[in-house]
Amino acid sequence: MTKNIMIVGVGGQGTLLASRVLGNTVINEGYDVKVSEVHGMSQRGGSVVTYVKYGDKVYSPIVDRGEADIILAFELLEAYRALPYLKKGGKMIVNNQQIDPMPVITGAAKYPENIAEKLSDTVDTTVVDALAAAKEAGNIKAVNVVLIGVMAKMTDIPYEKWVETIKTTVPEKFLGVNLKAFEIGYNL
């Protein structure tokens, strides 16, 4: 059975590190893994989407509409945009952070209201204040690992396996903060 996970966010939020931690963890569990990164204008705060598929045998990394078992969303609007990709019965994990896209910054558009509530009314949604949890861990840039911790709790992969992967994936100077962020996310 193949698991399809979509990680969505905005450039600079650490979605790529999150996909590396996820990919390396499931590889270490013996699964075949395919990862595909789709960058928008990530250098300018644009959308970033990463697909991670794993299972006994995976042939393509792409997750089509209605196929994602889990959508891990680092930002509210990105979660809303990704909703059509979630399969019936899938789970959405959403950071409650709002990052205004360029059309909102320039005044050409308005940021949609009540996104978290709309998602929760529609699908199985876990809304997390990952920014506050990352601050508690010691660095606001650890939002990504907080969210990986929340997601990890929903898998059948043991806590220790995730920690082992973080230790081998995250640079040494950021390891303490990221291990703390993972623990906080896992226990939210």
Strand and helix layout:
Layout: E1 3-10, H1 15-28, E2 32-39, E3 47-55, E4 68-73, H2 76-82, E5 86-95, H3 102-105, H4 115-122, E6 124-128, H5 130-137, H6 143-152, H7 159-169, H8 175-187
Parallel strand pairs: 1-4, 4-5, 5-6
Antiparallel strand pairs: 1-3, 2-3
Name its key features.
single chain, 188 residues, alpha/beta, Pyruvate-ferredoxin Oxidoreductase, domain 3, six-stranded mixed beta sheet, globular
Walk me through the structure.
- This protein is α/β, with parallel strands linked by helices and 188 residues long.
- Helix content is 40%, strand content 24%.
- It has a 6-stranded mixed sheet with strand order 2-3-1-4-5-6, sandwiched between helices.
- The radius of gyration is 16 Å and the shape is globular.
- The two termini are 28 Å apart.
Tell me the radius of gyration: 16 Å
Read across the widest sheet, the strand sequence of neighbours is 2-3-1-4-5-6
* Largest beta-sheet details: 6 strands, mixed
Mean pLDDT: 93
Indicate the proportion of strand residues.
15-25%
Question: How many alpha or pi helices?
Answer: 8
> What distance separates the N and C termini?
28 Å
Dominant shape: globular
Oligomeric state as shown: single chain
CATH architecture call: 3-Layer(aba) Sandwich
Outline the low-pLDDT stretches.
none
- CATH fold category name: Pyruvate-ferredoxin Oxidoreductase, domain 3
- How many independent structural domains? 1
Helical content class = 25-40%
CATH class: Alpha Beta
Write the H/E string, N to C. EHEEEHEHHEHHHH
The SS-based structural class is: alpha/beta
CATH superfamily: Pyruvate-ferredoxin oxidoreductase, PFOR, domain III
Total beta strands:
6
